[in-house]
Design goal:
With 137 residues, the protein is mainly alpha-helical. The chain contains four helices and no strands. The chain starts with 16 loop residues before the first helix and ends with a helix.
Length: 137
């Protein structure tokens, strides 16, 4: 079972305003889906949600990856691989859905929230610390 639902707070901020705005949008999108999705959402609704979130996640990943490249971030390859793994998992989830396997609201939202929480609190926190040091005094 998942941890508590992901809710935006200052504890999730990594100190890079552009990234924090994008994280907040993703967290709030998942929270909105948690409030509005029925327990057994119709497949087309799950597909739409995953399509929209994946499109925004890819935009967000590009933002992070440009910053990593621009500042020669040493952990960039591992970070990029996490982005690719997330995208692949969302695509696999959609493929399963198209093949007829129902995806429950809890399965979808727990996966998205847990992944985003872990990625922000661990991987992105390291990137934020690195970028703040680069821009520091």
């Amino acid at each position: 079972m998942s941890e508590l639902p992901l809710v935006w707070s200052d504890a999730l901020a990594i100190g890079i305003p552009e990234i924090d705005r994008q994280h907040r949008y993703l967290v709030e999108s998942i929270a909105e889906a948690r409030r509005t999705l029925p327990e057994q959402p119709p497949p087309e609704l799950v597909e739409q949600l995953t399509r929209d979130l994946l499109a925004y996640a890819i935009y967000h990943f590009e933002t992070e990856e440009i910053l990593m490249q621009r500042h020669a971030y040493g952990d960039a390859e591992r970070h990029r691989q996490q982005h690719r793994d997330f995208s692949a998992r969302v695509i696999a989830l959609r493929d399963e859905l198209r093949a007829g396997r129902p995806v429950s609201r809890a399965e979808l939202l727990d996966f998205l929230g847990d992944w985003l929480r872990h990625h922000i609190m661990h991987t992105d926190r390291g990137l934020g610390e690195f970028l703040r040091e680069k821009d520091g005094p």
